[in-house]
Amino acid sequence: MRFGLIYHHQLPRPWAEDSEERMFNESLEQIELADKLGFDYAWATEHHFLEEYSHSSAPEVFLAAAAARTKNIRLAHGIVSLPSGVNHPARVAERLATLDLISGGRVDFGSGAGSSQLELGAFDVARDTKKEEWEESLEVVTRLLSETPFTGHEGKFVSVPPRNLLPKPKQKAHPPLWMACSARTTIETAARHGIGALSFSFVSPEEAKEWVDTYYNIIESDECVPIGKTVNPNFSVVLPFMCHQDEDTALDRGLDGAHFFSYSLMHYYITGQHKPGTTDVWQAFQDNREAVGLVRNPPPVDDNVELAPEVKGMLAQITSLRRGIGTPEQITDLIRRYEEAGVDQIIFSVQIGKNEHEHIKESLELFAATVLPEFAERRDEVDAAKRDRLEVAVKEALTRVKTNTTDVSDYVISPELAL
Predict the structure, then answer these.
(1) Which of 192, 204, 295, 320 to pair with 391, CA 20 to 30 A apart?
(2) Are strands 159-160 and 153-154 parallel, antiparallel or unpaired?
(3) Which of 125, 122, 124, 119 shows the shortest CA–CA distance to 50?
(4) Measured between alpha carbons, how far is 231 from 196 in angstroms, rounded to an integer?
(5) pLDDT of amino acid 302
(6) CB-based burial of residue 275 (10 Å sphere; 0-12 exposed, 13-18 middle, 19+ buried)?
(7) Residue 151, SS3 per DSSP
(8) Residue 269 burial class via C-beta count within 10 angstroms: exposed 0-12, middle 13-18, buried 19 and up
(9) Rounded mean pLDDT, 398-402
């Protein structure tokens, strides 16, 4: 079991002049502490124009700053938006390789297609083709990182002529690949491509087991055809997080942040009507939270009332928001259940809503002192068993990697003199 922290860089209104500067510096301080405490991953999202929900529009810059302040923790993109209108694959590859070098080979590369209309519309990305764009760009990125020279790509959405990408990453053939997953179908896609599954749905251990079993069944089958040059068989789940010896204190410190995360997510992806630069999402959360059940003690559901599927889903999501918030004993029990389900990494959302910086640091320190040691102690044994189980499947999957036989030995670029 690995443990990570994910940073959306949430910043609810009202804002002061230095709010964003303070937010980034506090996040870096938290990652520096997490590195010293033995956490394994620091993840950074990429979002654009999602006021209050995520001010993480340049994760490559943030992770580079984290690299300079840490020694061991892995620095992970969760995720880079890969439609070429948002990020050209050559620029993605250049940034990844540079970050991998300056961090000493500590980069993981999660990617996705994006989904909110505020983002897709701003970059002129078509919703009905975004997944195709993601897949094409990911293949180009991995080839750019691993081929010398890159032999070129003529595609449906992006074309790149033969070039030799510089620099090349420290990790060969490229950093480990992950994919943003929010449903069973995307988890299946991740497994078919031989990449790690970043499950951003707040699933229970019991639900996670179904998804994990599906994921690893495909990894171990001939359906797994790696999109890159390596296989990264890993399954992660994301949870809101706050740890304190007293459960009520943990809820006081962490539940509002989890509730705002859920509300702002629904605002941008499902229910909201947003006016850029004007809409106050935090105030709307305060005004409407009770109506949508985002309160400390939501009213019980009448078993005699027939609920629509989307309402049931929302109620289940609200219940799940408490899952990673509690005492060390409660969180330890929860992690044991995820471990038994086959989950490889738990990623904690700590910097959400108006969670306080000092409370986050105290929570990380308590977790590291009371929860983490049990799982670190048996990590080598669990890792060895997993490697043995997957060894043959991974070798067979790698034989299915597409071999590039394009010959560009006669390709020459002539200078064009412009006067």
Answers:
(1) 204
(2) antiparallel
(3) 119
(4) 8
(5) 57
(6) exposed
(7) coil
(8) middle
(9) 95
What distances in angstroms separate CA 311 from CA 70, 294, 305, 307, 316, one per listed residue?
Answer: 43, 13, 12, 6, 9
Q: Is the pLDDT of residue 47 over 80?
A: yes
Closest C-alpha to 364, from 9, 31, 75: 31
Q: Which residue has the tokens 């499950």?
A: 199
Query: Which CATH code fits 2-285+322-398?
Result: 3.20.20.30
pLDDT at 416: 75
For range 124-134, the mean pLDDT: 96
Paired with 240 in beta bridges are: 349
157 within 8 A of 137, measured Cβ to Cβ = yes
- Supply 189's token pair: 């896609």
Torsion of Cα atoms, 111 then 117 then 118 then 123, to 10°: 60
In DSSP terms, 398 is beta-bridged to none
Q: How confident is the model at residue 115 (pLDDT cuts 50, 70, 90)?
A: confident
pTM above 0.85, yes or no: yes
Residues 6+ apart with CB under 8 A from 354: 12, 256, 257, 260
Where residue 81 falls among pLDDT bands split at 50, 70, 90?
very high
Residues 6+ apart with CB under 8 A from 185: none
- Tokens coding 387: 């490697």
Q: Which two tokens stand for residue 89?
A: 């694959």
DSSP 324-367: TEE-HHHHHHHHHHHHHHT--EEEEE-S-TT--HHHHHHHHHHH
Contact 218, 188 (CB under 8 A): yes
Beta strands in 21-173 (DSSP E): 41-44, 74-81, 107-112, 153-154, 159-160
> In this structure, which amino acid lies at residue 330?
Q
The pLDDT mean for the chain works out to 94
What number is the average pLDDT over the span 273-277? 96
Distance of CA 10 to the CA centre of its chain: 15
Burial of 386 (0-12, 13-18, 19+ CB in 10 A): middle
Strands 235-240 and 325-326: unpaired
